[in-house]
Amino acid sequence: MYLESIKSPADLKKLSLAEQQYLAGEIRQRILSTVSRTGGHLASSLGTVELTLALHSVFDCPQDKIVWDVGHQAYTHKIITGRNARFDTLRQENGLSGFPKQKESLYDAYLGGHSGVSISAALGMAEAMRLHGEEGFAIAVIGDGSFGSGVAYEGMNNAGRSGEKIIIVLNDNDMSISRNVGNVANYLAKMRSSRQYFRFKDNAKSFLGGVPVVGKPIRNALANSKKTLRQMMYHSNLFEDFGLRYFGPVDGHDLESLRDVFERAREYARPCVVHVHTTKGMGYRPAMENPSKYHGVSPFDLKSGLPLKPSDPGFSGAFGRSICELAQTRPQIAVITAAMTDGTGLEEFERRYAAAGRFYDVGIAEEHAVSFACGMSTQGTVPVFAVYSTFLQRTCDQLIHDAAIEPKHIVLAIDRAGIVGADGETHQGLFDVSMLRMVPGTVIYSPVTYRQLEADLAEAVDNGTGICAVRYPKGAQPALTASVLGENTDSWFLENRGGDTLLVTYGRLAEELFLARKSLEEQGRAVDVLVLNRIYPIPEAALEQTERYQRIFFYEEGIRSGSIGELCALHLMEQGYQGQFRLFAVENCFIPQCGVEHGYQLFHADHDSIIKTVLGESLH
């Protein structure tokens, strides 16, 4: 009824409160119907519908800048900022991104994909606007889970003393992806239970402000004693200790209260926090009852809530099974995750070993996780840190300084390595190999089958020293490759067909090479295929094998600079190799949101392109 008329936030402002409340229901249905077909981040965006409407009702975007921390909560923002007609293309190739992106809309103030950075970014915007003499507020919308990220406190520390027009909206829904952990979560729970203090403060100020003669002095005295009152009721207010005025907590689904509190924050016009309590998955019972399950979903049946295709736990599930089996006979193993218990396949490990103190969810704090693991290692524990490749990027300093200089034996289980598809540039796992290869003493495995993953993990735990990384992709093991390799768990595998051309790769790209080899063989062209399992250091015997081929084509699902292919090329050059060598990898770009197969096509690593390369045909 109302949604089709909303082309921009200006149209939203024309609606009455009752009309906006009706619009909230329409938006929830729009999100549900779309995400049930496309997949996406469901529970988080269902929880921020009223919050988003209130923000856009009170503030004037794009003059005011809204920075969405981990932008999977921004679907409503996209819908009411002129993108409703294209919302069906969400996370599809050439469609809307699942995250805010400046190149997509002038209403998207900042790229959002990783957590914790919104306060720092918003403060930078506020400072720059002041320098340029521009009006406007900078608003950081950050979830309570992201408050476990250290960079959020760095930003808050500087925001509180800045005097700028920055508003931090704390979207408190008791969750990150998995259930929140630690004292930050406990503190916010205490804040929510202490609403009587804030009601008392507001009501007293309002009443006393209207009392003639004596009202104002008493009100000022109360304001001066508010620290004592806070201490009496719940010991402290963290945010005001940081120099930020605190408003809240406010019901995040009460539009009237939200609009009122944002008006007050706007009038204050100095650094402040608005604490909003929302329910993740609001309006869709399955998501409300199990928000972790409905954080990121594949297409599902809207009525039942069940996925349209049976979910395959894939490599994540294989890792979960393998680490549980290893832990049974290796009491020195402890497992760490950064708010990704479900995503990394650790539900069963948590169930079995959390009570024994062998499972740690440290919240969204990857840097802490690595240093924490290093500390455990010094006392004889073998810590296994399960983390997505895209989030491992945040730990570069800890890996170099804490883990490598005085070597600590830690194991990195790197999930979602390589192209991930619909999440796009912010989540592609293309940098882990180049980043880890530069760290002295690191050993990297890239298994292509579940059997190899199991063996690599055991070797990393039992025989490793320093950093041992086992990286694997999203999804299931490739069928043809699994058939060819069988039970092979060696550090490298050579399929020798007697050709003078060698195709080299590691990880799931092996499937494309074997498919190309099979097709070429049918055309009478023999090519050999070398698949690395331990990719760094490259096994010497595997390097020696490459020297006898006239043509070598190396394919790598990662960044070219610092790649394993470059290392192979260097070895051949040092040996005086006179044949042809070509490396196909991701070069000086980011892979956009697209299917994995199309991602391969972008750097000519799909099987059709491989065939053309071998046959000497042009690539387009």
From TrEMBL:
Protein name (record): 1-deoxy-D-xylulose-5-phosphate synthase
Binding site for thiamine diphosphate: H72, G113, H114, S115, G145, S146, N173, Y284, E366
Keywords noted in UniProt: Isoprene biosynthesis, Magnesium, Metal-binding, Thiamine biosynthesis, Thiamine pyrophosphate, Transferase
Residues the entry annotates as binding Mg(2+): D144, N173
Recorded family membership: Belongs to the transketolase family. DXPS subfamily.
Names of the cofactor(s): thiamine diphosphate; Mg(2+)
Keyword Metal-binding attached: yes
CDD domains: TPP_DXS, TPP_PYR_DXS_TK_like
Assembly and oligomerization: Homodimer.
Cofactor binding, per record: Binds 1 thiamine pyrophosphate per subunit. Binds 1 Mg(2+) ion per subunit.
Enzyme class name: transferase
Catalytic activity field: D-glyceraldehyde 3-phosphate + pyruvate + H(+) = 1-deoxy-D-xylulose 5-phosphate + CO2
Annotated EC: 2.2.1.7
Any GO molecular function: 1-deoxy-D-xylulose-5-phosphate synthase activity
Pathway annotation from the record: Metabolic intermediate biosynthesis; 1-deoxy-D-xylulose 5-phosphate biosynthesis; 1-deoxy-D-xylulose 5-phosphate from D-glyceraldehyde 3-phosphate and pyruvate: step 1/1
